[in-house]
Amino acid sequence: MFENAKLSRPTLAVDPVHDGRHKLRADRPLDRESIPIIVNLPDEGIAFFTYTWVNSAGDAGAVLAIFGPGVGDKPIQLGLPDRPVPADMDFSNWTIDGFTMKQDLKFGHADVSWTSDVASVDFTFDGFHPPYAYGSNAEGCPTYCADNRIEQSGRAKGTLTIGDRVIYFDTTGHRDHSWGTRDWIAFQDYRWFQGQVGTDCSVHFWHLQALGSTKLLGYVFKDGLMAEVTDLDFTWQHDEDFNQTKLDATLTDEAGRTTTVEVDFFGHYPLVPHPELVLVEGAGRAKIDGRNGVGWLEVAWPVAYLEHIKSIPLYRDYAGKPQ
C-alpha cells in the first residue's frame, strides 16, 4: 500500500497493527483511545466530524457535529454517551447504536456511517499517504497526549443528510488515532492543523505548550514524499470571541522543503472534552503552496483563561490583527 509514496527516513514507517484497537491499562485512569474523522465542505459552507472513543474501563461513546453557515446559526450536535462495549470489538467493526466505523486495519479503507432522524452521514475514507506517528519524532509522543498518535489524510466520498436535504461529496478528509494517557489539563494551549490539496498533498502540524515547554510535531506529504516538520513560522487572526479567522504559516521539513499555508475560516464549533478545556474547531478554504484546498485549525483554550481574555475590551481590540 502507498507503493508510490516515499518516506524521508525509514523510522517514519508505522506498523499496520496500530490501525486496530489497543489494550489500555486499567491502572492508568486517564487512558483512552479515540478516532476522529473530519470532512470540510467549503462550497456548502459546512464542515462535520465523527469522533469515537473508549476508555480503560471499556466504556465507549461517540459524537457527530455538523457546523458552518450552511447549517445555520446553531450546529447540529449528536452524541452517544459512554456505555460498556465488548472487549473484543475492534475498529474493523466498531458499532455504537446508529454509529458504525469499519476500518480495514491496514491504514487504507474505512466505512463510516451515523444514522439518526436529525442528520446522517454515510461515507468512505481512503488514506492517500502513509500514516504519520508522533512516536517517530526524536523526542517521542508527549506522555500527556498518548502512548502514540497517528495522523493521516484521505479521500472522503459519500452523503451528508440534514432533514430532507442530501449533500453528495467527493473531497478530502483527515483522521487521527491515539491511544494511552490523555491529560487534557496538562495542555496550556495548542494549535492543531491539517489541510489537503486534492489527494497528492497533505500538511499537518501540532504546535503546543505543556509542562512549561513548546513542542512541534507534524509532517508534509507532497511530490510523493512524506517528511517530518522541523520548523514552523505562523501568524493567525481571530474575531472578538477569539475564534480563528485567518492563518498564514510556513513550514520547513526534514527534507529541506518549505511549504506555505494560507487559510480563511468560515465555520467554528466548540468541542469540550473536559470542563476546563475547550477546543475551538475552525474549518476553512486553504491555499497550500498557492494551490486551492481545504484546511482545519483546532485551537485549545483553558476555559477560565478564554473567559478572562474575552472579558477585557483591550484584548478584544486585537480582533482581526495578526497574532
Task: Describe the protein in words.
The chain has 2 helices and 20 strands. It has 323 residues and is mainly beta. It has a single domain (6-316), classed as AttH-like fold. The protein is globular. Strands 2, 3, 4, 5, 6, 7, 8, 9, 10, 11 and 12 form an 11-stranded antiparallel sheet that branches. An 8-stranded antiparallel barrel has the order 13-14-15-16-17-18-19-20. The longest helix has 8 residues, at 303-310. The chain starts with 5 loop residues before the first strand and ends in a 7-residue tail after the last helix. The mean pLDDT is 96.
Describe how the helices and strands are arranged.
Elements: E1 6-7, E2 31-41, E3 46-55, E4 59-67, E5 76-84, E6 94-96, E7 99-103, E8 109-114, E9 119-127, E10 132-133, E11 148-162, E12 165-181, E13 187-197, E14 201-210, E15 213-222, E16 225-238, E17 244-253, E18 258-274, E19 277-288, E20 291-302, H1 303-310, H2 313-316
Parallel strand pairs: 1-16
Antiparallel strand pairs: 2-3, 2-12, 3-4, 4-5, 6-7, 7-8, 8-9, 9-11, 10-11, 11-12, 13-14, 13-20, 14-15, 15-16, 16-17, 17-18, 18-19, 19-20
